[in-house]
Every structure is written in C-alpha cells, then in structure tokens.
Amino acid sequence: MNRKAGFTLLELTVVLFILTLAVALIAPSLGRPFGQLRLQAASKDLAALCRFARTQAISQQGVVEVVLDRQTNAYWLRGPEWLISRLSGIEHVNTAENPEQPWEARWRQARVRALPSGVTLKSVVLNTGPLREDERGAMAFFPNGSSTGGEVWLSNEKGRGYRIVVDPSIGRVRINAAESI
Hints:
By secondary structure, the protein is an alpha+beta fold. The protein has a domain at 34-61 and 68-77 and 113-178: minor pseudopilin epsh domain (minor pseudopilin epsh fold). Helices cover 31% and strands 33% of the residues. It is built from two helices and ten strands; from the N terminus they run αββαββββββββ. Strands 3-4-2-1-7 form a five-stranded antiparallel beta sheet. It has a five-stranded antiparallel beta sheet with strand order 6-5-8-9-10, covered by helices on one side. The longest helix has 52 residues, at 9-60.
C-alpha cells in the first residue's frame, strides 16, 4: 500500500462547514459587549466633563456650565469667554451672546462631544425640571464648588444605562448603573 498522507476533499469540506457554522453562531455575540462599552465610556466622559467644569469654576473663580442637548445627543462646556480662553489644550467653538440676557458676559463653548451611535440622552432632569427631547439645558458650576445640580440618564438601544447625578450643594458627581430605564 503506497498511500500518500493528506486530507481528502470531503474531510476539508466538513471542517470548513463546521468552522463556518461556529463563526455564524458566535459572531453576533461578539458585538454585544461593544455597545455596553460605548455606553460606559460615554457615561464616564460626561461625568469627567462635569468634574472638570467644577474644578475650573473653583480655580478660575467663574461660572462654568455643562450644556446638554437632547435633540443632537451632544454635550459641551460653556463659560465666559475670558475663562474658557484660558483653558489650554481644549478645542474652542463659537462665541455667542445670550440674547435673553444681554448684560451677561460673552459665552464661549468648548469640548463639544457627540454621544456614540446607539447611546442617547434618555432623560435629563435639571433644577428647572425635565428637558423634553427637543430641548437644551445646562448644569452650572460655581466658584464655591456648588452647582445647580441635576440627573442625566444615558442609555443604549437595549434600555441599559447609567445615571449621572450632580449634587447641587457640593457639586459632587456620581455615576450609578441602572439595568433598565
């Protein structure tokens, strides 16, 4: 018997079929954790921006706001032009005057962030009340460390989410996990 060592075409076909079946069953489950990671990263980023705003308000002795826009699913830092222009290493955006309060200083926006796909500002409750889906609101941080406070719920398409709570008396920022919103 002079048989050469190797695989037959039938054996290779069976192995390829088994590998294809395994990949087809496992691949959808590999994408699931990334949605949760995007949600967690967005929550940490928003909380970090709130902490940064509080720190800058105290150190620069001015009012700094974190603006939340439910319509565009974005958030950013806003403050007097003199204060925001001092922050180095931050991308600056347009400067605008508040038409409702022309006596206030000119305000500049910086650090604009859009939430990743699949993550939304599910609920925003500020000291003025809850924001509708087409509204924009802000949490202000003051030079004494306090804030106007509020709660922001970020969620993904599966309803899982995180709640970011800003204490009005001391400006402390906390993140709480919530299974469903």
